[in-house]
Amino acid sequence: MTIQPFTLNIPQTELNDLTSRLAATRWIETIDEDDWREGTSLRFMRNLVGYWRDGFDWRLQESRLNTFSHFITEVDGQRIHFIHQRGKGPAPMPLILTHGWPGSFAEMLDIIPFLTDPARFGGSESDAFDVIIPSLPGYGFSPPPRKRGVGARQTAHLWAGLMDRLGYGRFALQGGDLGAGVSSWLARLYPDRVIGLHLNFIPGSYLPYIEDDRPITEEEQEFLNRRAAWSNEQGAYGHLQGTRPQSPAFALNDSPAGLAAWIAEKFQAWSDCEGQIENAVSLDALLTNISIYWFTGTIGSSFRMYVEGRLDPLQLSAGERISPPLAMAHFPKELPMPPQSWVSRGYNLARWTSMPHGGHFAAMEHPRELAADIRSFFNTLR
């Protein structure tokens, strides 16, 4: 399959169906309608569903999405949707931005102009990038894989094939959440093609080899304890999505309110929002992301990355390192992050930036700051 232009155009019948389903939402009973401790609050959900039904303008958001250059192609039998936005400069560096869950390609939109046209924002045109944003297999407009086994490792091979198709021999990488896993696998499998690796999250499955003469430090053990405590308190979603994903998929694929509650909970818990999602991400941005899951029917297939991740973790063997240089942008409200020593055991850590604010959805929350750190790091590798 050749590379073909792609335009988003959700049929009006699907918009009408969504409106009807939202109007027919069957609400739960709860002890405290404002409480988020046991999941998304009832009051927030009533407001969100009401806005989605009566105030949110999908056609406006769809029009904005279509201002970017979308394409569809096929690599190794897997159809891939991606944005390919050319940089404005003498020699733009190709950069793959990979999203995670519960995000989509839409979470990367605000950062694009800061990377493709830095001169417009007071930077140098010599720092421009050609930005490639693929949708993970089974996410958004990349259809679900036709076979088992398509996890982060296999997606890395797909991204390498996509860059071949686009004519890029070497390229840069950036990612968070599942995108950090795919990017790390790309750097591990194709070190000669990867210029450098910029992450704002270390994959949860990452496990370096522990040498006998370098036992785990007190700081590293504290991180492992903290991560285990977080998993016990907040990790039920990941365990469910990685072990029994099909059962919740039936419910979430059938109820837009249920889908919104499942996703909104993570934006509230993982962003730097002080308990109010709108402090970090607008409702329009949140609902654009949720609507992509809804209209494409991909919430169930998005869980497959969790299933495959449990079977194929990013575990390094004796003497193995991910050799391309790594830059870490550490946002303070991120999920539990390892110390630099733990990262350095397996990565070629070249830069660590402690960001002043922000959380898990860095490209949505603080696109200008994230882009500046990306440009600064890769400027040393051009």
SS class: alpha/beta
Integer count of domains: 1
Low-pLDDT segments, ≥5 res: none
- CATH architecture group name: 3-Layer(aba) Sandwich
Q: Given the C-alpha coordinates, what overall shape results?
A: globular
Q: Main β-sheet: number of strands, strand sense, barrel status?
A: 9 strands, mixed
Residues in helices, as a percent range: 40-55%
CATH homologous superfamily caption: Alpha/Beta hydrolase fold, catalytic domain
CATH topology: Rossmann fold
Mean pLDDT: 97
- What portion of residues belong to β-strands? 5-15%
End-to-end distance: 32 Å
Strand order of the largest sheet: 1-2-3-5-4-6-7-8-9
Order of helices and strands: EHHHEEEHEHEHEHHHHHHHEHEHH
Look at the structure and give the CATH class. Answer: Alpha Beta
What is the number of beta strands?
9
If you had to describe this structure to a student in words, what would you say it looks like?
The chain is of the alpha/beta class and 382 residues long. The protein has a single domain (4-20, 38-379), classed as Rossmann fold (3-Layer(aba) Sandwich). Helix content is 42%, strand content 15%. It has 16 helices and nine strands. It has helices at 12-23, 42-54, 58-65, 112-116, 152-166, 178-189, 218-234, 236-243, 246-254, 256-270, 283-296, 299-302, 304-311, 340-344, 362-365, 367-379; strands at residues 4-5, 70-75, 78-85, 93-98, 129-134, 171-175, 194-199, 322-330, 347-354. Strands 1-2-3-5-4-6-7-8-9 form a nine-stranded mixed β-sheet, with helices on both faces. Helix 8 (236-243) crosses helix 13 (304-311). The chain is globular and about 60 Å long. It starts with a strand and ends with a helix. The mean pLDDT is 97.
